[in-house]
Amino acid sequence: MLTTAEFFQLTQWAGITTLVVAVLAIAGFIFKWGVRFQLVGVTGFMAVLTGGLFALSLVPIVRTVVPGAVRYSVVYDNGATQAVISIPPTITETELEATLRQAANDLYSYGRLGREQDQLNIRARTVIHPKPGVSQPLYLGDVRRSLRNREDEQIQIEIFSDKFAKLPKSSA
Prior knowledge:
Layout: H1 4-30, H2 36-58, E1 73-77, E2 82-86, H3 93-107, E3 119-128, E4 136-146, E5 156-159
Parallel strand pairs: 2-3
Antiparallel strand pairs: 1-2, 3-4, 4-5
């Protein structure tokens, strides 16, 4: 992932390119080149691109990594107060707790709608196969966090320990 300093350097190069294309566009109008209107379009696009890169150079892009978390997939997200993540069936309880913390950090957004509730509820599930040809979702835990406070210290993690007995034993 690029840092803000690298985005600022890209902004400088894009700005120089924008100025060069703008000078070419002006020259195109002076000398009545056939591509003068395309050069105006390219100049506008480069100006928008330069502005976007400049904005990215101001705001740090930070992703918090929780140690011990495993990869997960978001399988449901209503954009408001509920989400479901899919985890591998080989997960342990400590890995699940770290993964739920990671998901709570990753899925937090200021843009989530919380009309009735002000909490985001993320459930973790895996899929087990009790018999050949039969798939069954198994919810192993959930996490609840505030929708209003990014640095929520009151994250509530609940792990369903009794469900871990249903997981297949690894052959390692």
